[in-house]
Amino acid sequence: MGRVEELWRAGEMPSRDGLYRPDDTGLEWHVEGPGAYHPDAGQPVPFRVGGPFDVARAIEEHGVDGVDTCFESPLPDGSGWVTGGGGGMGNIGHLARLDADRSLRWVAVMFYSNPFVAVRYDGTSAVFTNDWGNRMVLDLTSPALG
Length: 146
Fold this sequence. Notes:
The chain is mostly beta strands. The chain is built from two helices and twelve strands, in the order H-E-E-E-E-H-E-E-E-E-E-E-E-E.
């Protein structure tokens, strides 16, 4: 079991922006700060996925934060679950994909997204809504999220 999986099982997550996997690999995951988009409901939450980074170093340098889960939803195809919420301060959000046995597939941590409070599905995409009513759309068939 990797450090990311240990943290998840303990109700914690790394405190640095990133897409973390239970094998302790990760991808850069950037969400612009609140000034980059208007807090009116219905706006997209801009994000970008980057290259790999050193997960152990990120945890060492940035520490960990508690996971505050706001929702858990089964995937329409029955292959697993998605969860979302926040952590620590009110600006932090996270999204996670779990397998059918609820083991962690990945967790995305975002320091400036605000907590995610709901999800709906549109084909192969999950549309997540944060506590400002803004949305982040993820294609769950994307190689980065596989």
